Amino acid sequence: MRTYARKFVAAAALAAAVCLLAGPGAAGDKDQVWKQFLPADAYKELVSRAAKNIDEALTGTPSEEAIKKAQFNALMIAAYAVSSTEAHGGMPEAALRLAKAVGQKGKLDEARKTAEALGAGRVTADGGKAKFGDAKAYLADRADLMEHFKTKMKGGEGIHPSLQSNIRLKGTQNGIEEKLRALAMKKITEAGAKKESAELALLGYRAAVVGEVTYFYAPKKNAQEWHELSLAMRDAGVALADAAKKQDAEAIFKAANSLNSSCNQCHSAFRGKP
Questions:
Q1: Are 208 and 83 in contact (CB under 8 A)?
Q2: What is the pTM of this model?
Q3: What average pLDDT does range 31-35 have in this prediction?
């Protein structure tokens, strides 16, 4: 009975977190937005990297660009938690409070402490509830959600050295978007699939979570098409992660094509539109 009770409590906590992030902005569709696909090891690593990015962004006197970077990573930590296969206490609420606080005057020290706690996994529910009904309350411009996909030369984060499979990806095309394009243009070798497996899986999971968050930035016009493309991005990202973990070159090629296609379709239909 105790085992059953613990499982019930964990399931209830996870369900509450899903409802928390879905909020009123996803009315009618919230059940399909968030899926628990992120395994514990990937969740832990992605949260750790996001917390590190926040810490670096908030060093000294952060610029406006650095503030946006911190907000993006905090938003992603919240989404990682809800997309994880396990319940994680007050992680989503704390991450969303951080995203809100980092842009407020006089709250940088509070934001830094919260970021440290998030990275160490020391966050517990404290009764305060942050709402994800409007993602723009935490990261105002949807363009900032996609900034990290760009090459490092254009302000993006770049890709892990193990994913820099050619001279261009080590130099001017060092970026997530360019890596996905390269994977979709030419099937990776079996040796490459083995070498890139771990990092490629993380990249796939991260893209999938970005797809979920993107859902909440739908424009007023053609919102349904935006929602469909966002969820297609999520599903393609998960497929890429699964293929990478299996070191299946053919499946990586197919998933990368699907992911690249969903991104291109969205850019074609919505770029430059409010």
A1: yes
A2: 0.85
A3: 79
